[in-house]
């Protein structure tokens, strides 16, 4: 079943290739959406895909790339909008 998640990741997640890591994981799991840095130091992710794939995606986001340190992750499950055709980094 297709789902959508809106995620906020806190910790040492900027300047450590977290967005690139997120995009690579999304591509690997056939997930669509976007990722961006926020001014307060968090990373925001909006993603759509199969529920099981999104669960795997979230587990990867909890780990992050080697230089990252994830302290907290907020997840809001939503109904999909099917607005995405790719996964991109927003600057």
From TrEMBL:
Q: Name one GO molecular function term.
A: acylphosphatase activity
Please name the SUPFAM superfamilies in this protein's record. Answer: Acylphosphatase/BLUF domain-like (SSF54975)
Give the record's keywords alphabetically.
Hydrolase
Tell me, what's a Pfam family for it?
Acylphosphatase
Is Hydrolase one of the keywords? Answer: yes
Which reaction(s) does the protein catalyse, per the Swiss-Prot or TrEMBL entry?
an acyl phosphate + H2O = a carboxylate + phosphate + H(+)
List residues of the Acylphosphatase-like domain: 4-91
EC code(s) of this entry: 3.6.1.7
Of which family is this protein a member? Belongs to the acylphosphatase family.
Annotated protein name in UniProt: acylphosphatase
């Amino acid at each position: 079943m297709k789902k959508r998640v809106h995620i906020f990741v806190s910790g040492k997640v900027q300047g450590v290739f977290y967005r690139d890591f997120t995009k690579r994981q999304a591509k690997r799991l056939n997930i669509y959406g976007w990722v961006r840095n926020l001014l307060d130091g968090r990373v925001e992710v909006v993603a759509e895909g199969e529920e099981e794939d999104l669960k795997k995606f979230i587990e990867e986001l909890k780990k992050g790339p080697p230089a990252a340190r994830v302290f907290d992750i907020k997840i809001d499950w939503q109904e999909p909008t099917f607005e995405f055709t790719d996964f991109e980094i927003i600057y």
